[in-house]
Amino acid sequence: MFNNVTIVGVGLISGSFALALKDKGYAKKIIGVSRTKASTDKAIELGIIDEALPLEEAVRQSDFIYVAIPVDATIPVMKQIMNLVTDKQIIADAGSTKFVLCNSLADHPMRKRFVATHPMWGTEYSGPEAAVRGAFKDRSCVICEKEKSDEDAVSLVEKIYKSLGMHIAYMDPENHDIHAAYVSHISHITSFALANTVLEKEKEEDAIFELAGGGFESTVRLAKSSPAMWAPIFMQNKENVLDVLNEHISQLRKFKSCLEKENYEYLVELMENANKITRIIK
Amino acid sequence: MFNNVTIVGVGLISGSFALALKDKGYAKKIIGVSRTKASTDKAIELGIIDEALPLEEAVRQSDFIYVAIPVDATIPVMKQIMNLVTDKQIIADAGSTKFVLCNSLADHPMRKRFVATHPMWGTEYSGPEAAVRGAFKDRSCVICEKEKSDEDAVSLVEKIYKSLGMHIAYMDPENHDIHAAYVSHISHITSFALANTVLEKEKEEDAIFELAGGGFESTVRLAKSSPAMWAPIFMQNKENVLDVLNEHISQLRKFKSCLEKENYEYLVELMENANKITRIIK
After folding, report:
1. Which residues does UniProt assign to the signal peptide (chains A, B) (predicted)?
2. Same domain, B119 and B181
3. Domain boundary among B156, B172, B188
Protein backbone atom coordinates (compact mmCIF):
# COMPACT_ATOMS: atom_id res chain seq x y z
CA MET A 1 0.00 0.00 0.00
CA PHE A 2 2.90 2.33 0.78
CA ASN A 3 6.17 2.27 -1.05
CA ASN A 4 8.39 3.67 1.69
CA VAL A 5 7.57 4.10 5.34
CA THR A 6 9.80 5.92 7.84
CA ILE A 7 9.76 5.08 11.50
CA VAL A 8 11.27 7.73 13.74
CA GLY A 9 12.63 5.92 16.74
CA VAL A 10 13.49 2.25 16.32
CA GLY A 11 12.30 0.88 19.66
CA LEU A 12 9.52 -1.13 21.25
CA ILE A 13 6.53 0.62 19.63
CA SER A 14 7.96 1.75 16.31
CA GLY A 15 9.81 -1.53 15.87
CA SER A 16 6.74 -3.64 16.58
CA PHE A 17 4.71 -1.38 14.29
CA ALA A 18 7.30 -1.73 11.50
CA LEU A 19 7.27 -5.52 11.79
CA ALA A 20 3.48 -5.48 11.55
CA LEU A 21 3.49 -3.16 8.50
CA LYS A 22 5.82 -5.53 6.71
CA ASP A 23 3.90 -8.64 7.77
CA LYS A 24 0.60 -7.15 6.60
CA GLY A 25 2.12 -6.02 3.29
CA TYR A 26 1.65 -2.30 3.96
CA ALA A 27 5.22 -1.27 3.23
CA LYS A 28 7.75 -2.18 0.59
CA LYS A 29 10.64 -0.53 2.36
CA ILE A 30 11.00 0.63 5.94
CA ILE A 31 13.46 3.41 6.72
CA GLY A 32 14.60 3.90 10.30
CA VAL A 33 15.60 7.20 11.89
CA SER A 34 17.42 7.33 15.20
CA ARG A 35 19.97 9.52 16.94
CA THR A 36 21.83 6.35 17.84
CA LYS A 37 23.66 4.40 15.15
CA ALA A 38 23.79 1.32 17.38
CA SER A 39 19.98 1.27 17.41
CA THR A 40 19.53 1.46 13.64
CA ASP A 41 22.30 -1.12 13.15
CA LYS A 42 20.48 -3.43 15.54
CA ALA A 43 17.13 -2.73 13.85
CA ILE A 44 18.60 -3.63 10.44
CA GLU A 45 20.13 -6.79 11.90
CA LEU A 46 16.74 -7.77 13.37
CA GLY A 47 14.95 -7.14 10.06
CA ILE A 48 12.88 -4.31 11.54
CA ILE A 49 14.10 -1.68 9.08
CA ASP A 50 15.65 -1.96 5.65
CA GLU A 51 17.91 1.05 5.91
CA ALA A 52 18.82 3.96 8.17
CA LEU A 53 18.72 7.56 6.98
CA PRO A 54 18.87 11.03 8.50
CA LEU A 55 15.41 12.46 9.25
CA GLU A 56 15.16 14.89 6.32
CA GLU A 57 16.24 12.38 3.73
CA ALA A 58 13.97 9.70 5.18
CA VAL A 59 10.91 11.96 5.21
CA ARG A 60 11.48 13.03 1.60
CA GLN A 61 11.48 9.40 0.46
CA SER A 62 8.43 8.28 2.45
CA ASP A 63 4.68 8.08 1.94
CA PHE A 64 4.05 7.54 5.63
CA ILE A 65 6.08 8.70 8.64
CA TYR A 66 5.44 7.14 12.04
CA VAL A 67 6.96 8.80 15.12
CA ALA A 68 7.44 6.87 18.35
CA ILE A 69 10.05 8.58 20.51
CA PRO A 70 9.89 10.13 24.00
CA VAL A 71 6.98 12.58 24.14
CA ASP A 72 9.16 15.60 24.87
CA ALA A 73 11.27 14.93 21.77
CA THR A 74 8.16 14.33 19.67
CA ILE A 75 7.14 17.99 19.53
CA PRO A 76 10.24 19.50 17.84
CA VAL A 77 10.71 16.43 15.63
CA MET A 78 7.08 16.54 14.52
CA LYS A 79 7.38 20.23 13.62
CA GLN A 80 10.49 19.47 11.63
CA ILE A 81 8.66 16.71 9.76
CA MET A 82 5.62 18.89 9.12
CA ASN A 83 7.89 21.50 7.60
CA LEU A 84 9.04 18.90 5.11
CA VAL A 85 5.93 17.01 4.04
CA THR A 86 3.60 17.56 1.11
CA ASP A 87 -0.14 16.98 0.76
CA LYS A 88 0.56 13.45 -0.42
CA GLN A 89 2.30 12.29 2.74
CA ILE A 90 0.82 11.08 6.01
CA ILE A 91 2.30 11.43 9.51
CA ALA A 92 1.22 9.78 12.75
CA ASP A 93 2.64 9.59 16.27
CA ALA A 94 2.24 6.97 18.97
CA GLY A 95 2.78 9.07 22.08
CA SER A 96 1.26 8.37 25.50
CA THR A 97 0.27 12.01 26.00
CA LYS A 98 -1.77 14.00 23.54
CA PHE A 99 -2.72 17.39 24.95
CA VAL A 100 0.61 19.22 24.76
CA LEU A 101 1.49 17.73 21.39
CA CYS A 102 -1.85 18.52 19.75
CA ASN A 103 -1.74 22.06 21.11
CA SER A 104 1.81 22.59 19.88
CA LEU A 105 0.90 21.49 16.36
CA ALA A 106 -2.55 23.10 16.15
CA ASP A 107 -1.55 26.03 13.96
CA HIS A 108 0.88 24.31 11.65
CA PRO A 109 -0.24 24.59 8.01
CA MET A 110 0.36 20.84 7.53
CA ARG A 111 -1.57 19.82 10.69
CA LYS A 112 -4.12 18.07 8.45
CA ARG A 113 -1.53 15.54 7.25
CA PHE A 114 -0.93 14.46 10.86
CA VAL A 115 -2.98 11.90 12.75
CA ALA A 116 -2.59 11.96 16.56
CA THR A 117 -2.73 8.38 17.81
CA HIS A 118 -1.99 6.37 20.93
CA PRO A 119 -1.96 2.63 20.40
CA MET A 120 -2.42 1.35 23.96
CA TRP A 121 -0.01 -1.49 23.95
CA GLY A 122 3.46 -1.87 25.41
CA THR A 123 5.77 -3.93 27.53
CA GLU A 124 8.31 -2.96 30.14
CA TYR A 125 11.14 -3.43 27.65
CA SER A 126 12.68 -0.91 25.27
CA GLY A 127 14.95 -0.64 22.26
CA PRO A 128 14.80 -2.51 18.93
CA GLU A 129 15.30 -5.85 20.71
CA ALA A 130 11.97 -5.24 22.48
CA ALA A 131 10.03 -5.13 19.20
CA VAL A 132 7.73 -8.12 18.78
CA ARG A 133 5.51 -9.58 16.11
CA GLY A 134 1.79 -9.67 16.84
CA ALA A 135 1.84 -6.60 19.08
CA PHE A 136 -1.20 -4.30 19.46
CA LYS A 137 -3.73 -7.10 18.95
CA ASP A 138 -7.03 -6.73 20.86
CA ARG A 139 -5.97 -3.43 22.40
CA SER A 140 -7.45 0.03 22.03
CA CYS A 141 -5.99 2.75 19.88
CA VAL A 142 -7.02 6.30 20.68
CA ILE A 143 -7.22 8.84 17.86
CA CYS A 144 -7.43 12.46 18.93
CA GLU A 145 -8.77 15.43 16.98
CA LYS A 146 -9.82 13.28 14.06
CA GLU A 147 -11.57 16.32 12.59
CA LYS A 148 -8.28 18.20 12.29
CA SER A 149 -6.73 15.55 10.05
CA ASP A 150 -7.49 14.99 6.36
CA GLU A 151 -9.97 12.21 5.77
CA ASP A 152 -7.61 10.14 3.62
CA ALA A 153 -4.96 10.30 6.36
CA VAL A 154 -7.32 9.25 9.14
CA SER A 155 -8.88 6.43 7.19
CA LEU A 156 -5.55 4.97 6.18
CA VAL A 157 -4.19 5.11 9.72
CA GLU A 158 -7.41 3.58 11.09
CA LYS A 159 -7.23 0.84 8.50
CA ILE A 160 -3.69 -0.07 9.53
CA TYR A 161 -4.49 -0.18 13.24
CA LYS A 162 -7.66 -2.17 12.64
CA SER A 163 -5.77 -4.68 10.55
CA LEU A 164 -3.41 -5.15 13.54
CA GLY A 165 -6.47 -6.13 15.59
CA MET A 166 -6.94 -2.85 17.45
CA HIS A 167 -10.27 -1.16 18.15
CA ILE A 168 -10.33 2.56 17.64
CA ALA A 169 -11.55 5.03 20.28
CA TYR A 170 -11.99 8.73 19.52
CA MET A 171 -11.24 11.27 22.20
CA ASP A 172 -10.22 14.86 22.59
CA PRO A 173 -6.64 15.26 23.84
CA GLU A 174 -7.70 16.46 27.32
CA ASN A 175 -9.84 13.41 27.92
CA HIS A 176 -7.22 11.09 26.51
CA ASP A 177 -4.66 12.41 28.97
CA ILE A 178 -7.03 12.06 31.93
CA HIS A 179 -7.86 8.48 31.02
CA ALA A 180 -4.28 7.57 30.26
CA ALA A 181 -3.30 8.82 33.72
CA TYR A 182 -5.80 6.37 35.25
CA VAL A 183 -5.28 3.30 33.13
CA SER A 184 -1.59 3.52 32.37
CA HIS A 185 0.51 6.25 33.96
CA ILE A 186 -0.48 5.52 37.58
CA SER A 187 0.30 1.82 37.13
CA HIS A 188 3.82 2.75 36.13
CA ILE A 189 4.29 5.09 39.07
CA THR A 190 3.04 2.52 41.58
CA SER A 191 5.35 -0.09 40.09
CA PHE A 192 8.37 2.22 40.19
CA ALA A 193 7.54 3.18 43.78
CA LEU A 194 6.96 -0.44 44.80
CA ALA A 195 10.32 -1.42 43.35
CA ASN A 196 11.98 1.36 45.34
CA THR A 197 10.12 0.28 48.49
CA VAL A 198 11.45 -3.23 48.17
CA LEU A 199 14.95 -2.17 47.12
CA GLU A 200 15.09 0.09 50.19
CA LYS A 201 14.50 -3.01 52.30
CA GLU A 202 17.03 -4.99 50.33
CA LYS A 203 19.74 -2.64 51.51
CA GLU A 204 19.15 -3.89 55.03
CA GLU A 205 18.96 -7.56 54.33
CA ASP A 206 20.57 -9.67 51.67
CA ALA A 207 19.09 -12.50 49.73
CA ILE A 208 15.57 -12.22 51.02
CA PHE A 209 14.11 -11.98 47.57
CA GLU A 210 14.44 -15.52 46.48
CA LEU A 211 10.86 -15.53 47.76
CA ALA A 212 9.57 -13.02 45.24
CA GLY A 213 6.77 -14.82 43.44
CA GLY A 214 4.09 -14.25 40.87
CA GLY A 215 2.00 -11.59 42.57
CA PHE A 216 5.01 -9.44 43.28
CA GLU A 217 6.35 -9.91 39.79
CA SER A 218 3.18 -8.74 38.11
CA THR A 219 2.76 -5.64 40.26
CA VAL A 220 6.39 -4.60 39.92
CA ARG A 221 7.29 -5.55 36.37
CA LEU A 222 6.53 -2.10 34.96
CA ALA A 223 9.33 -0.79 37.18
CA LYS A 224 11.68 -2.10 34.53
CA SER A 225 10.30 0.49 32.09
CA SER A 226 12.53 3.10 30.48
CA PRO A 227 12.95 6.36 32.43
CA ALA A 228 13.78 8.17 29.16
CA MET A 229 10.36 7.21 27.85
CA TRP A 230 8.30 7.63 31.01
CA ALA A 231 9.70 10.71 32.76
CA PRO A 232 8.56 12.99 29.89
CA ILE A 233 5.12 11.33 29.92
CA PHE A 234 4.65 11.98 33.65
CA MET A 235 5.88 15.55 33.24
CA GLN A 236 3.66 16.35 30.27
CA ASN A 237 0.66 14.83 32.01
CA LYS A 238 1.63 16.26 35.39
CA GLU A 239 -1.75 17.64 36.45
CA ASN A 240 -3.71 14.49 35.71
CA VAL A 241 -1.04 12.19 37.10
CA LEU A 242 -0.94 14.23 40.31
CA ASP A 243 -4.73 13.99 40.64
CA VAL A 244 -4.61 10.22 40.34
CA LEU A 245 -1.54 9.91 42.53
CA ASN A 246 -3.19 11.92 45.30
CA GLU A 247 -6.28 9.74 45.08
CA HIS A 248 -4.10 6.62 45.14
CA ILE A 249 -2.17 7.77 48.21
CA SER A 250 -5.46 8.54 49.94
CA GLN A 251 -6.72 5.04 49.07
CA LEU A 252 -3.54 3.53 50.50
CA ARG A 253 -4.02 5.62 53.66
CA LYS A 254 -7.44 4.03 54.11
CA PHE A 255 -5.78 0.62 54.23
CA LYS A 256 -3.19 2.00 56.61
CA SER A 257 -5.84 3.40 58.90
CA CYS A 258 -7.77 0.10 58.91
CA LEU A 259 -4.67 -1.74 60.02
CA GLU A 260 -3.70 0.82 62.65
CA LYS A 261 -7.20 0.83 64.11
CA GLU A 262 -7.73 -2.91 63.52
CA ASN A 263 -10.92 -2.01 61.71
CA TYR A 264 -11.49 -5.42 60.15
CA GLU A 265 -14.92 -4.63 58.77
CA TYR A 266 -13.85 -1.54 56.87
CA LEU A 267 -10.77 -3.39 55.59
CA VAL A 268 -12.99 -6.09 54.11
CA GLU A 269 -15.27 -3.42 52.69
CA LEU A 270 -12.34 -1.72 50.93
CA MET A 271 -11.28 -5.03 49.45
CA GLU A 272 -14.78 -5.99 48.38
CA ASN A 273 -15.06 -2.66 46.63
CA ALA A 274 -11.72 -3.31 44.89
CA ASN A 275 -13.06 -6.67 43.70
CA LYS A 276 -15.45 -4.69 41.49
CA ILE A 277 -12.48 -4.11 39.21
CA THR A 278 -13.64 -7.29 37.45
CA ARG A 279 -16.12 -4.95 35.77
CA ILE A 280 -13.11 -3.45 34.00
CA ILE A 281 -10.66 -6.33 33.74
CA LYS A 282 -12.17 -9.76 33.35
CA MET B 1 2.86 -43.06 49.69
CA PHE B 2 -0.12 -42.05 51.78
CA ASN B 3 -3.34 -43.96 51.88
CA ASN B 4 -5.68 -41.12 52.80
CA VAL B 5 -4.97 -37.42 52.74
CA THR B 6 -7.30 -34.76 54.11
CA ILE B 7 -7.33 -31.25 52.76
CA VAL B 8 -8.99 -28.70 55.02
CA GLY B 9 -10.36 -26.03 52.76
CA VAL B 10 -11.07 -26.98 49.16
CA GLY B 11 -9.90 -23.84 47.38
CA LEU B 12 -7.10 -22.46 45.26
CA ILE B 13 -4.14 -23.73 47.30
CA SER B 14 -5.51 -26.90 48.85
CA GLY B 15 -7.24 -27.85 45.60
CA SER B 16 -4.11 -27.35 43.51
CA PHE B 17 -2.12 -29.24 46.14
CA ALA B 18 -4.62 -32.13 46.10
CA LEU B 19 -4.47 -32.37 42.31
CA ALA B 20 -0.67 -32.50 42.51
CA LEU B 21 -0.70 -35.19 45.22
CA LYS B 22 -2.91 -37.35 43.06
CA ASP B 23 -0.90 -36.70 39.90
CA LYS B 24 2.36 -37.57 41.64
CA GLY B 25 0.90 -40.69 43.17
CA TYR B 26 1.21 -39.52 46.77
CA ALA B 27 -2.37 -40.19 47.77
CA LYS B 28 -4.80 -43.01 47.18
CA LYS B 29 -7.79 -41.11 48.48
CA ILE B 30 -8.27 -37.40 49.12
CA ILE B 31 -10.85 -36.31 51.66
CA GLY B 32 -12.10 -32.74 51.62
CA VAL B 33 -13.25 -30.74 54.62
CA SER B 34 -15.15 -27.50 54.23
CA ARG B 35 -17.84 -25.55 56.06
CA THR B 36 -19.59 -25.16 52.74
CA LYS B 37 -21.28 -28.17 51.12
CA ALA B 38 -21.37 -26.38 47.76
CA SER B 39 -17.55 -26.24 47.84
CA THR B 40 -17.01 -29.93 48.57
CA ASP B 41 -19.67 -30.86 46.00
CA LYS B 42 -17.83 -28.76 43.43
CA ALA B 43 -14.47 -30.24 44.48
CA ILE B 44 -15.82 -33.77 44.02
CA GLU B 45 -17.27 -32.83 40.65
CA LEU B 46 -13.90 -31.41 39.58
CA GLY B 47 -12.04 -34.53 40.71
CA ILE B 48 -10.11 -32.63 43.38
CA ILE B 49 -11.36 -34.72 46.28
CA ASP B 50 -12.83 -38.21 46.44
CA GLU B 51 -15.19 -37.58 49.31
CA ALA B 52 -16.25 -34.98 51.83
CA LEU B 53 -16.27 -35.65 55.57
CA PRO B 54 -16.57 -33.64 58.79
CA LEU B 55 -13.19 -32.60 60.21
CA GLU B 56 -12.96 -35.16 63.04
CA GLU B 57 -13.88 -38.10 60.89
CA ALA B 58 -11.56 -36.98 58.08
CA VAL B 59 -8.59 -36.53 60.42
CA ARG B 60 -9.12 -39.97 61.99
CA GLN B 61 -8.94 -41.61 58.55
CA SER B 62 -5.91 -39.70 57.24
CA ASP B 63 -2.12 -40.14 57.23
CA PHE B 64 -1.57 -36.54 56.20
CA ILE B 65 -3.70 -33.46 56.85
CA TYR B 66 -3.09 -30.29 54.85
CA VAL B 67 -4.74 -27.07 56.02
CA ALA B 68 -5.24 -24.15 53.63
CA ILE B 69 -7.95 -21.86 54.95
CA PRO B 70 -7.94 -18.19 56.00
CA VAL B 71 -5.12 -17.61 58.50
CA ASP B 72 -7.43 -16.54 61.32
CA ALA B 73 -9.44 -19.76 61.02
CA THR B 74 -6.25 -21.82 60.80
CA ILE B 75 -5.37 -21.42 64.48
CA PRO B 76 -8.47 -22.97 66.11
CA VAL B 77 -8.77 -25.59 63.37
CA MET B 78 -5.13 -26.57 63.75
CA LYS B 79 -5.55 -26.95 67.53
CA GLN B 80 -8.60 -29.12 66.95
CA ILE B 81 -6.62 -31.30 64.54
CA MET B 82 -3.64 -31.53 66.89
CA ASN B 83 -5.95 -32.74 69.62
CA LEU B 84 -6.96 -35.62 67.36
CA VAL B 85 -3.75 -36.84 65.74
CA THR B 86 -1.39 -39.59 66.78
CA ASP B 87 2.38 -39.91 66.35
CA LYS B 88 1.83 -41.59 63.01
CA GLN B 89 0.07 -38.68 61.36
CA ILE B 90 1.53 -35.56 59.75
CA ILE B 91 -0.05 -32.10 59.55
CA ALA B 92 1.01 -29.09 57.49
CA ASP B 93 -0.48 -25.69 56.77
CA ALA B 94 -0.05 -23.37 53.79
CA GLY B 95 -0.76 -20.02 55.44
CA SER B 96 0.71 -16.70 54.31
CA THR B 97 1.55 -15.66 57.88
CA LYS B 98 3.60 -17.75 60.24
CA PHE B 99 4.38 -15.86 63.45
CA VAL B 100 0.99 -15.88 65.16
CA LEU B 101 0.25 -19.45 64.13
CA CYS B 102 3.60 -20.86 65.26
CA ASN B 103 3.32 -19.03 68.56
CA SER B 104 -0.21 -20.27 69.15
CA LEU B 105 0.81 -23.87 68.59
CA ALA B 106 4.20 -23.75 70.32
CA ASP B 107 3.13 -25.53 73.48
CA HIS B 108 0.84 -28.13 72.03
CA PRO B 109 2.02 -31.68 72.87
CA MET B 110 1.58 -32.67 69.21
CA ARG B 111 3.48 -29.65 67.80
CA LYS B 112 6.14 -32.03 66.48
CA ARG B 113 3.68 -33.66 64.06
CA PHE B 114 3.01 -30.25 62.48
CA VAL B 115 5.12 -28.66 59.73
CA ALA B 116 4.64 -24.92 59.24
CA THR B 117 4.89 -24.17 55.52
CA HIS B 118 4.14 -21.40 53.09
CA PRO B 119 4.26 -22.43 49.44
CA MET B 120 4.68 -19.07 47.70
CA TRP B 121 2.35 -19.55 44.83
CA GLY B 122 -1.13 -18.29 44.15
CA THR B 123 -3.42 -16.54 41.74
CA GLU B 124 -6.07 -13.88 42.25
CA TYR B 125 -8.82 -16.49 42.04
CA SER B 126 -10.37 -18.55 44.82
CA GLY B 127 -12.58 -21.57 45.42
CA PRO B 128 -12.28 -25.12 44.05
CA GLU B 129 -12.69 -23.83 40.46
CA ALA B 130 -9.45 -21.90 40.94
CA ALA B 131 -7.42 -25.07 41.57
CA VAL B 132 -5.01 -25.82 38.74
CA ARG B 133 -2.68 -28.60 37.74
CA GLY B 134 1.04 -27.79 37.64
CA ALA B 135 0.80 -25.15 40.38
CA PHE B 136 3.76 -24.37 42.70
CA LYS B 137 6.41 -25.17 40.06
CA ASP B 138 9.64 -23.13 40.27
CA ARG B 139 8.42 -21.18 43.28
CA SER B 140 9.80 -21.02 46.82
CA CYS B 141 8.29 -22.81 49.76
CA VAL B 142 9.18 -21.50 53.19
CA ILE B 143 9.35 -23.93 56.09
CA CYS B 144 9.42 -22.36 59.56
CA GLU B 145 10.68 -23.83 62.81
CA LYS B 146 11.86 -26.98 61.10
CA GLU B 147 13.55 -27.97 64.38
CA LYS B 148 10.20 -28.10 66.18
CA SER B 149 8.80 -30.74 63.84
CA ASP B 150 9.67 -34.43 63.82
CA GLU B 151 12.25 -35.34 61.23
CA ASP B 152 10.01 -37.81 59.41
CA ALA B 153 7.30 -35.17 59.11
CA VAL B 154 9.64 -32.49 57.75
CA SER B 155 11.34 -34.78 55.28
CA LEU B 156 8.08 -36.07 53.88
CA VAL B 157 6.64 -32.59 53.47
CA GLU B 158 9.88 -31.38 51.87
CA LYS B 159 9.86 -34.31 49.52
CA ILE B 160 6.35 -33.52 48.36
CA TYR B 161 7.05 -29.83 47.77
CA LYS B 162 10.29 -30.62 45.97
CA SER B 163 8.55 -33.09 43.72
CA LEU B 164 6.14 -30.27 42.76
CA GLY B 165 9.18 -28.30 41.60
CA MET B 166 9.48 -25.98 44.60
CA HIS B 167 12.72 -24.94 46.26
CA ILE B 168 12.69 -24.93 50.02
CA ALA B 169 13.76 -21.93 52.12
CA TYR B 170 14.09 -22.16 55.91
CA MET B 171 13.18 -19.17 58.03
CA ASP B 172 12.04 -18.31 61.49
CA PRO B 173 8.42 -17.13 61.61
CA GLU B 174 9.35 -13.48 62.35
CA ASN B 175 11.56 -13.25 59.29
CA HIS B 176 9.08 -15.05 57.13
CA ASP B 177 6.41 -12.51 58.01
CA ILE B 178 8.70 -9.55 57.31
CA HIS B 179 9.68 -10.93 53.93
CA ALA B 180 6.14 -11.92 53.03
CA ALA B 181 5.06 -8.35 53.75
CA TYR B 182 7.59 -7.10 51.19
CA VAL B 183 7.25 -9.65 48.43
CA SER B 184 3.57 -10.48 48.65
CA HIS B 185 1.34 -8.60 51.07
CA ILE B 186 2.24 -5.08 49.87
CA SER B 187 1.60 -6.06 46.25
CA HIS B 188 -1.91 -7.04 47.21
CA ILE B 189 -2.54 -3.81 49.11
CA THR B 190 -1.28 -1.64 46.26
CA SER B 191 -3.47 -3.55 43.81
CA PHE B 192 -6.55 -3.23 45.99
CA ALA B 193 -5.85 0.47 46.47
CA LEU B 194 -5.19 1.00 42.76
CA ALA B 195 -8.48 -0.66 41.89
CA ASN B 196 -10.28 1.64 44.33
CA THR B 197 -8.47 4.66 42.87
CA VAL B 198 -9.68 3.81 39.41
CA LEU B 199 -13.18 2.82 40.51
CA GLU B 200 -13.47 6.15 42.33
CA LYS B 201 -12.84 7.83 38.98
CA GLU B 202 -15.26 5.54 37.21
CA LYS B 203 -18.07 6.93 39.32
CA GLU B 204 -17.53 10.29 37.65
CA GLU B 205 -17.24 9.11 34.09
CA ASP B 206 -18.74 6.16 32.32
CA ALA B 207 -17.14 3.84 29.87
CA ILE B 208 -13.67 5.26 29.99
CA PHE B 209 -12.05 1.97 30.76
CA GLU B 210 -12.26 0.34 27.42
CA LEU B 211 -8.72 1.71 27.31
CA ALA B 212 -7.42 -0.39 30.17
CA GLY B 213 -4.53 -2.32 28.72
CA GLY B 214 -1.79 -4.71 29.70
CA GLY B 215 0.18 -2.59 32.16
CA PHE B 216 -2.92 -1.69 34.12
CA GLU B 217 -4.15 -5.24 34.09
CA SER B 218 -0.97 -6.65 35.57
CA THR B 219 -0.71 -4.08 38.37
CA VAL B 220 -4.35 -4.37 39.33
CA ARG B 221 -5.12 -8.05 38.85
CA LEU B 222 -4.43 -8.94 42.50
CA ALA B 223 -7.34 -6.65 43.40
CA LYS B 224 -9.58 -9.53 42.40
CA SER B 225 -8.22 -11.54 45.33
CA SER B 226 -10.48 -12.84 48.06
CA PRO B 227 -11.08 -10.48 51.02
CA ALA B 228 -11.88 -13.48 53.23
CA MET B 229 -8.39 -14.80 52.57
CA TRP B 230 -6.43 -11.55 52.61
CA ALA B 231 -7.99 -9.44 55.37
CA PRO B 232 -6.85 -11.92 58.06
CA ILE B 233 -3.35 -12.01 56.52
CA PHE B 234 -3.01 -8.23 56.66
CA MET B 235 -4.36 -8.18 60.20
CA GLN B 236 -2.08 -10.93 61.49
CA ASN B 237 0.93 -9.33 59.84
CA LYS B 238 -0.17 -5.84 60.74
CA GLU B 239 3.12 -4.46 62.07
CA ASN B 240 5.21 -5.58 59.11
CA VAL B 241 2.59 -4.62 56.57
CA LEU B 242 2.34 -1.15 58.12
CA ASP B 243 6.11 -0.74 57.95
CA VAL B 244 6.14 -1.56 54.26
CA LEU B 245 3.03 0.46 53.55
CA ASN B 246 4.55 3.53 55.21
CA GLU B 247 7.71 3.11 53.17
CA HIS B 248 5.63 2.67 50.01
CA ILE B 249 3.58 5.80 50.67
CA SER B 250 6.79 7.73 51.27
CA GLN B 251 8.20 6.42 47.96
CA LEU B 252 5.01 7.53 46.18
CA ARG B 253 5.34 10.94 47.81
CA LYS B 254 8.79 11.29 46.27
CA PHE B 255 7.23 10.89 42.83
CA LYS B 256 4.54 13.35 43.80
CA SER B 257 7.07 15.91 44.93
CA CYS B 258 9.10 15.52 41.72
CA LEU B 259 6.02 16.25 39.65
CA GLU B 260 4.91 19.17 41.80
CA LYS B 261 8.34 20.74 41.69
CA GLU B 262 9.00 19.67 38.09
CA ASN B 263 12.22 18.10 39.31
CA TYR B 264 12.93 16.09 36.18
CA GLU B 265 16.38 14.95 37.23
CA TYR B 266 15.27 13.46 40.52
CA LEU B 267 12.29 11.84 38.80
CA VAL B 268 14.64 10.07 36.38
CA GLU B 269 16.88 9.12 39.29
CA LEU B 270 13.96 7.51 41.14
CA MET B 271 13.03 5.55 38.04
CA GLU B 272 16.59 4.47 37.34
CA ASN B 273 16.82 3.22 40.88
CA ALA B 274 13.57 1.30 40.40
CA ASN B 275 15.03 -0.30 37.27
CA LYS B 276 17.44 -2.14 39.62
CA ILE B 277 14.51 -4.42 40.41
CA THR B 278 15.80 -6.55 37.53
CA ARG B 279 18.26 -7.83 40.15
CA ILE B 280 15.25 -9.46 41.81
CA ILE B 281 12.89 -10.19 38.92
CA LYS B 282 14.52 -10.99 35.63
Report:
1. none
2. no
3. B172
